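Input record, target 12 of the design panel.
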């Protein structure tokens, strides 16, 4: 090969190498561009801690304004800064118009004073017009609540009746109190009010919906008529009626095509660890009402059926039901003193409706009256609100009554709370026992015996 040919060949090889390098760089640049345009995350943690909950994604995508989140962190806490960065980055991916800035509280005290921030992990959400909304904690829950409040024009007031021996929304006791429920409602941007009864003049005009939780006394004379008129005029009412609730409340349901059963629901297959069979799980929710957003089961301590009467003149539907393995122990208003078995000719097999809704047409087709009844109130108390999907279910009911579908969704469970109960059914516990204590050790012992036998055979054959 002549020197000229060698030179041409060298230039050709160099050109090919240069072209390959350019193509590889172009490929990487294209991948980087596409990755920047489409944020795809793979979260393999068991609790999906690095992924926004469906409820938070809904709130971020529904936010239409332009704003900036200023989050203040401690420079000594590297993990805290990274958590804030991950959270705000995820929120920004679903709401690009929501910018953010991380600020070292110790290095910029003037900016902290301007925003009136004095603690690590807190911050401010500032709108484009300069309006500021303080964030006591820059967390997924806090940001979600703030975005939802900004997305609503006027959330309104949820009023609780207290004149019939109902559970008190200000009570902090674990079993009968509803203080945590009150906090959950207020976090969603609603105000909470109280009133004894609904008189002839109707409820307070501020009430967007009225709740009666676990009444123990009958309605006063003429009060049922006042409540009925309130609903037929477009009012919204939620009744949480335990087994053995006052008969006047059951009769009120009949006026709207709803029927409260005189029974107690039994669910042996899905009973929780340490609980009896009278704590059913609810895992069936009406998709058209809850938009298929409720995925976690609801635990109802001592519940009864609430179903529709089937009257064609009423617009009533069932909202939630128990599993097929459940059944209703008929003619009972409290837990029987002894174990019960299913009576084929008397008791009712599952699935059983535990919540139902009746809608009443009004002069305004966009604002019908509505009444919702649930056959249990304990699921909303301080002791059970954070069990599985109880909180989401109650707030979803409030969302239906308040005509606010943004309330329907699955919220993230509080992480790092040592008091958060581990909800396992008896069958799940039995499975864990047999797999962890019997099957896996048994397989290990069997494998060891087989290996020992093979080793002995080899030694004997030598």
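The sequence produced for target 12 reads:
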């Amino acid at each position: 090969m002549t020197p000229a040919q060698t030179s041409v060949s060298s230039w050709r090889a160099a050109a090919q190498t240069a072209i390959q390098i350019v193509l590889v760089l172009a490929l990487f640049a294209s991948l980087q561009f596409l990755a920047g345009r489409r944020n795809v995350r793979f979260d393999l943690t068991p609790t999906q801690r690095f992924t926004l909950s469906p409820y938070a994604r809904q709130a971020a995508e529904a936010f239409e304004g332009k704003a900036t989140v200023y989050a203040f962190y401690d420079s000594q806490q590297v993990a805290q800064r990274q958590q804030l960065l991950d959270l705000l980055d995820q929120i920004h991916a679903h709401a690009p118009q929501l910018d953010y800035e991380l600020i070292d509280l110790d290095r910029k005290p003037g900016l902290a004073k301007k925003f009136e921030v004095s603690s690590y992990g807190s911050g401010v959400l500032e709108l484009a017009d300069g309006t500021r909304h303080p964030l006591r904690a820059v967390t997924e829950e806090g940001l979600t609540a703030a975005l939802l409040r900004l997305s609503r024009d006027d959330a309104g007031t949820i009023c609780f009746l207290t004149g019939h021996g109902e559970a008190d929304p200000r009570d902090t006791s674990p079993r009968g109190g509803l203080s945590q429920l009150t906090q959950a409602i207020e976090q969603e941007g609603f105000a909470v009010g109280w009133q004894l009864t609904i008189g002839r003049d109707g409820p307070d005009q501020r009430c967007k919906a009225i709740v009666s939780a676990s009444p123990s006394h009958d309605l006063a004379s003429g009060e049922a008529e006042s409540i009925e008129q309130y609903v037929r005029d477009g009012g919204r009412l939620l009744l949480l009626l335990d087994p053995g609730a006052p008969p006047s409340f059951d009769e009120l349901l009949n006026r709207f095509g709803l029927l409260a059963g005189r029974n107690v629901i039994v669910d042996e297959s899905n009973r929780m660890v340490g609980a009896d069979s009278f704590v059913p799980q609810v895992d069936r929710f009406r998709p058209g009402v809850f938009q298929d957003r409720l995925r976690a089961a609801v635990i109802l301590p001592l519940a009864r059926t609430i179903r529709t009467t089937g009257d064609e003149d009423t617009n009533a539907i069932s909202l939630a039901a128990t599993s097929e393995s459940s059944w209703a122990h008929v003619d009972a208003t409290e837990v029987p003193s002894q174990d019960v078995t299913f009576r084929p000719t008397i008791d009712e097999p599952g699935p059983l409706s535990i919540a139902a809704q009746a809608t009443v047409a009004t002069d305004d087709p966009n604002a019908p009256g509505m009444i919702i009844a649930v056959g249990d109130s304990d699921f909303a108390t301080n002791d059970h609100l954070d069990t599985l999907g109880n909180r989401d279910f109650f707030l979803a009911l409030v969302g239906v009554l308040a005509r606010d579908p943004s309330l329907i969704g699955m919220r993230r469970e509080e992480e790092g709370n040592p008091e958060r109960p581990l909800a396992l059914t008896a069958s799940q516990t039995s499975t864990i026992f047999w797999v962890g204590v019997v099957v896996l050790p048994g397989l290990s012992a069997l494998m060891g015996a087989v290996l020992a036998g093979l080793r002995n055979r080899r030694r004997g054959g030598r």
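The chain is about 35% helix and 20% strand.
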